[in-house]
Amino acid sequence: MNVAGGIVFQVLQSVLVLLLAPLMLGWVNQCRAWLQNRSGAGIWQPYRVLHKLFHKDAVLAHNASPLFRATPYILFGCMWLAVGIVPVLATSLPFAPAADVIALVGLFALARVFVSLAGMDVGTSFGTLGARREMMIGFLAEPAMLMTLFTASLISHSTSLATIVETLGQREFVIYPSMAFAAIAFLMVLLAENARIPIDNPSTHLELTMIHEAMVLEYSARHLALIEWAASLKLTAYITIGIAIFVPWGIAQAGDWAALPVALAALLLKLLAAGAGLALLETLSAKMRIFRAPEFLGTAFLLATLGMLTHFLLER
Amino acid sequence: MTNFQPVEAAVTLSVIWIGLGAIGLACMRAPKLITGVVFPAGALVSLALAATGLWAIGASPSSAILPAGLPDLPFHVRVDALSGFFLLLLGGVSFGISLFACGYFRDTRATTLAPLSLQYHVFLASMALVLIADDAYLFMVTWESMALSSYFLVTTEHHDERNRRAGFIYLLIAHLGAISILLCFGVLHGGHGDYTFAALRAADLHGFWATVAFLLAFFGFGAKAGMLPLHVWLPEAHPAAPSPVSALMSGVMIKTAIYGMVRVIFDLIGNIRWEWGLTVLLFGAATSLFGVLFALMQHDLKRLLAYHSVENIGIILIGIGLAMVFIGSGHPVAGALGLIAGLYHTLNHAVFKGLLFLGAGAILKSTGLRNLNEMGGLIRYLPHTALYFLIGALAISALPPLNGFVSEWLTFQASLQAPQLASSVVRSLVPIVAAVLALSGALTGMCFVKVYGIAFLGQRRHEYSVQPDEASGWERAGMLWLAIACFALGLAPVFVIGELNTVCLALTGAGLSDEAMASGWLWLAPTSGAQASYSPVVFLLVIAAVFGLTFVLVRHFYHGRLRRADPWDCGFPAQTSRMQDSADAFGQPIRQIFAPAFLIKREIPRADDLQPVFTQSVEDRHWYSMYLPIARFTEFLSGHFGRLQQGRISVYLLFSFMTLIALLVFAQ
Fold it and tell me: How far apart are CA A217 and CA A209, in angstroms?
């Protein structure tokens, strides 16, 4: 692998995902609109929203602390780092060794803690409510997520995402029962962590059902824009982690220009399919009560554990 | 001096500490001298001790015989790499704490301060001597003097009945532990040879007696460390002590128990069996989960931090347990990874828990409050303390790129070596323990969002009786030192692991693979780069760069205009500070989800109550299911034995006569 090619691929991937992440959100929303027989706002709507928000004057509560102002930038930095590490376009990127899957989960936790703290900063009732619920979802989802990733890492004997992708992508197509369990668990965690139905509703502003929206209620203008952009980056990061682990075929090696068009086409196809699937899932299910969330994520944890045990029993 | 050895330096520094304590006691009339000279000098000794420890890790073991002790029973001392590492921990952390103490105790009355300074420095010196003791005799003497001096420190404010009770429970469990350790040395001694560690090491125990020695050591040291179910003293004693002492006890003292456990199990007993490792592992997992669940139920800041010490001891035990499982089943390289993870977490916990207790002390001193429910908005009054506390909170929540994450990451990596194991039960149990670790890590994150959000952020819940003042220069220096250590240990893990690898090699004869050590300073890769790697520096740099870049670009393409207004809160008009979550409300999801773990007593007012009051308390089941029955049984027994006590000399003579007869009959 030549270093220059690696760096070019790294920059290419980071910028591409950064620019495409709002599009992903727009695509999911548009699909949902179609499924619900609405015409929808079009797939470019998130960009318009971001543009509008960046133009506005920021309004800050009187007692907001510096932490409140710093959080959107920290959050954005965390999420951008995450999409730089996940092998989206190519493996063996120069940034990839900076974090394995466990460190990636830690990175998401860092972002979550900062947003929750910001939610409590102004000291409003909804902010603390959102922070409390977000941390609850977080501690339920994190073990399930780690168990899923452990299962995936057992097959390739590595927690490095790049190695996992290379091992699974270059093998013959074999259905691992453990990976089937892990995939379902991962999907459940993805829904919970990205504030999607059935755990949270991204388009609700009904006070009592909000989780993520309640925390960021006090944000406006550029701060809110960065948070929304970071949320779309997070969704993309999770979907690409899922793609990398469960359907890695078609990914390029960093610096391998010939494989790039194929990798790009495969990525776009997979993202479109994932977005449509997410929209379908959200249309078919309803938001559940907050105290059903432990059951939901407990199931995810059990499935991931079952996957791991299956690996030990069947696949050795 | 050419022949000056680390062991001599360590002994000298301990003696200087005791001397400083005596000087402090003599300065009863000049309290300014105590905080202005004695404590800063003690801090310098700490620094020198840390340097000695670092030196000792690299040097070959050095030993000496002290002229003190009983006739024919001199004190043996020895400093090897393991002792060196713990001396480094003791010195490095107590430096920050002593600096803090210089400012913290400035307003303490002289009559309290002078004995406190004696106990404080004797406490430090006895911890140092525990770490360098090389015979069971000196070890027990210094272990006891450590327990006693800290008992007096816990009961500094002895007019409060609760503090006396806390001190009593502490002393009781400390002694139960000490008896267990003493018996363990007895078993190891086996009736031959002497009580030097060299002799105990040479006595090759096998089978049943080795397991007995292991269990005695595990529970003896576990009692001091705060392991489940012997943890009950910890949340009582740590809050009762003055804050720098709490920091010292939570940060350093319970680590001497970890030192003792590693010393006795890995070094003195040897021949580790994987079943022992499994015991340690399961106790560790239970301790860590229990600790964090109870921490989430607390609203007293120092009590909450004490429960987190229980949790972190659990995490350390998970690392050590993994090491024992791997070493016991013949995988010394994976075992080295587990041991390094455990020791790394020991150091990390000392640093960030010290920092957090100092932060709690700074809050207590400036507001007089320990109850989270009465705080709020402190970031506006104590900005420096708020920053340091935030660093400590992020570190303990195991968030990258700070230090807590590195050791938890290493523990995860160690547990992922499980497929090497032969037994399929253990193989699938180990990752489940890792999942428990993940759960307690995430719960810790929640707990510190609660602490920080409620104490420092939001609106103040009460009018503070006095305007809270920022901590003084000394206090800030102490916290700054530990905050820097959180960053240093988090950002340069490769160097720390290099040192720990030396310790591990000296102790178990195996270290990490060469491939792991050759990965360069930027990338931390415990087994090999292809398996797993992590680079905290890249983390920090990228996040900082994106932060700066976004900040500049947003202002370049758009603008940076800002307007202040009232909080919006969905347009709700009548906001009051009481509408924020209290500490107990924040823990409500935990109370609901993990209800069986707690003993919840709740009184809900009836519909027709004129003055409705809602009360709820969450208690530890162990009190009711374990400690109180034992206490009642003890009282019952002693009540019956009391009948022997007649108070008449003829009856006592009769007892002696009967004993003699019995001995004559049975001793034939």
Answer: 13
Question: Is there a contact between B458 and A308 if contact means CB atoms under 8 Å apart?
Answer: no
Query: Taking the CB of residue B512, how many other CB atoms lie within 10 A of it?
Result: 21
Strand ranges for B71-164 from DSSP E: 73-79
Range of the structural domain that residue A131 is part of: 3-314
Q: How many CB atoms lie within 10 A of CB A314?
A: 10
Domain limits, chain B: 277-513, 600-668
Question: pTM for the complete prediction?
Answer: 0.93
DSSP B329-367: TT-HHHHHHHHHHHHHHHHHHHHHHHHHHHHHHHHHHHH
B443 against B471, higher pLDDT: B443
Cβ(B243)–Cβ(B361) under 8 Å?
A: yes
Would you say B62 and B3 are in contact if contact means Cβ atoms under 8 Å apart?
no
Give the pair of three-digit tokens for residue B643. 């009948």
Using the CB atoms, write b or e for B303-335: b if 16+ within 10 Å. bbbbbbbbbbbbbbbbbbbbbbbbbbbebbbbb
- Tell me if B542 and A301 make a contact (CB, 8 A cut-off): no
pLDDT band with cut points at 50, 70 and 90 for residue B544:
very high
The answer to whether B517 and B544 are in contact (CB under 8 A) is no
Helices B332-367/B473-491 angle, 10° precision: 160
Find the closest chain A residue to B410 by CA distance: A102
Q: How many domains does chain A have?
A: 1
CA distance A37 to chain B (A): 30
Rounded to two decimals, the ipTM of the complex is: 0.93
| Contact in structure between B115 and B25 (CB atoms under 8 Å) | yes
Query: Is A84's Cβ below 8 Å from some Cβ in B?
Result: yes
Position B1 confidence tier, pLDDT thresholds 50, 70, 90:
very low
Report the number of secondary-structure helices (H) and strands (E) in chain A.
Answer: 11, 3
State the helix-helix crossing angle for B161-189 and B233-240, rounded to 10 degrees: 130
Per-chain mean pLDDT for chain B:
88
- How many of the other CB atoms lie within 10 Å of CB of B143? 27
